[in-house]
Amino acid sequence: MKISIAIVEDEKNYNNALKKIINYQDDMRVVAQYFDGLDALENLPDISPDVVMMDIQLQDMLGIEIIGKIKKQLPDTQFIMCTSFEDDEKVFNSLKAGAMGYLVKGESMDKILSSIRDVYNGGAPMSFSIARKVLSHFEKKLPEIKGFDELTQREKEILELLSQGLLYKEIGDKKFISIDTVKKHVGNIYRKLHVSNKVEAINKFNHFKN
């Protein structure tokens, strides 16, 4: 099974370059290319790709808006923001909308390809400069701990493994459950902790432990 990828990017040369290098890989293929937000908004729910490479600043709308509108229709699709913007507001709005990765344009193709594999396997890949912003943001603003007591023992165990950096597949192997079951547990964890991504969930867990 190849990782199915959709590219939403209005810079045609960059969009086509991504498609070419992705399709050259043995384990992934591009199933759709979109050059504007409206086209992506209308068609992504029908395609349901494993991963979407999403530009933030499209000519007709923000990529963040697209994720906000279709994320519920695509619960198993992972979004990676790929952009030239590094300002805090866009970073955090992307993560709140449900993006699991955030790459700055200019990253090597190797980094982009490894990020696609990483996010598909339950990771949250970010460019180094973005990861630093996220960490410093959480150091300044400690989240309120809510919902931890609602977690089942299994959910707490999975959250502990997530905080150790394990991917969904590794958690599944360790707990003898399928990746889909892990994803369902993670969805329940997010709902109970009132978070929208793994970074926030792990941060709450770490503060609870401390």
UniProtKB/TrEMBL annotation:
Keyword Phosphoprotein: yes
Alphabetical list of PROSITE patterns matching this protein: HTH_LUXR_2, RESPONSE_REGULATORY
Response regulatory domain: residues covered: 4-120
InterPro entries tied to this protein: CheY-like_superfamily (IPR011006), NreC/VraR/RcsB-like_REC (IPR058245), Sig_transdc_resp-reg_C-effctor (IPR016032), Sig_transdc_resp-reg_receiver (IPR001789), Tscrpt_reg_LuxR_C (IPR000792), WalR-like (IPR039420)
Domain HTH luxR-type: 144-209
BP term (GO), one: phosphorelay signal transduction system
Positions bearing 4-aspartylphosphate: D55
Coiled-coil stretches noted in the UniProt entry, renumbered to this chain: none
Keywords tagged on the record: DNA-binding, Phosphoprotein
GO molecular function, a single term: DNA binding
Keyword DNA-binding: yes
Signal peptide (UniProt feature, chain positions): none
PANTHER family from the UniProt entry: TWO-COMPONENT RESPONSE REGULATOR (PTHR43214:SF43)
Identification of the protein by name: Two component transcriptional regulator, LuxR family
Natural source organism: Chryseobacterium takakiae
